[in-house]
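Final paragraph of the annual report: two paired records, presented back to back.
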Amino acid sequence: MAPVSKTSTPRLGKVLKRAFFNRDVREVARDLIGATMLVDGVGGLIVEVEAYHHTEPAAHSYNGPTPRNQVMFGPPGYAYVYRSYGIHWCVNFVCEEEGSASAVLIRALEPTHGIAVMRRRRHLQDAHALCSGPGKLTEALGITIAHNTLPLDRPPIALHARTEELEVVAGIRIGITKAVELPWRYGVRGSKFLSKPFPK
């Protein structure tokens, strides 16, 4: 992908509605690569995600509903935001039919919109490091627990389909201790904006 610049504002694809998420979580994860995620107009191209299915123990929903993960058990197309390690927020997109409790974790973006705002929020100039991790991107986009349970197709959140074909690669997920063998991490091959490179 081309290096990002201050004037880099790629055209936006069609708006992704909540129905887009009413499918197998792994299919949705793949199709989100290259889509544009915006929060109050700030964001970029999704270059890395992870899928989590309720049947595997790495998913927050594996042991059933709790006050924290309740939104995962609802209808698809909503945001699930949680605090990771008591430090930073992570944002997920709820997928599959109501009750499935499966979601896609957004791991990294290539900044394209509102880069100056992201730099102020992150106190960082390097565009490659602004959104290269799930906690980094939520800070850059201003995502907090206030965004939990919000619909993904209404302000302040907007998602747009990718406008070009990209080479999507898969690998094992990062930073988990259960179901580590599942190759449910997806990303853009060779992107410089990933949280961690994929094995070659």
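The closing record of the year follows.
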Amino acid sequence: MPLDEQQTWALLRELDEPGHWEVPHDFDGPAARARFERLAERLERLFDCSCEVDRHVQDASHLGRIVIPADATAALDQVTVTVSNFGGLVAVTLGNPGSYDEDEEREFFPASVRRRLEDELEALGYLPVSEHPLWTKYTGISGFDALYPPDRPPSWWDRFFDYL
């Protein structure tokens, strides 16, 4: 079961370490990469498809993305799985991140597809989170916001799921 909004906020604040913008202080790159590869393989089996897998992410707070084609699911659009470098967090989005609001996502992203996907994530120890609260302005303690101009403050999505 994905984290609810209150649990998500508590975890985001806990993971927000000063000075650790790309990876946490205890990040185990080889282990994280191996788990990501297992996830990609499992999703391809689960949906009987070939997923687009972005394995070459640099200068980012996320490890990679896996895109499940729309024709492999009952969803209206592709499903994008973005794996953060922090705390096993994973954002599952309909289409590209930020493409659909919560109401559209409920309508066009069948709960049965989401549940199957979340079961796979949880089996590998990932924590699925909703993308929607992450689009709010970043208000953490890491100093991460200093990377952005004052007229374009970062979001929590930027902090844990995007390029720096």
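DSSP finds five helices and five strands in the chain. This concludes the annual technical report; the extension proposal builds directly on these records.
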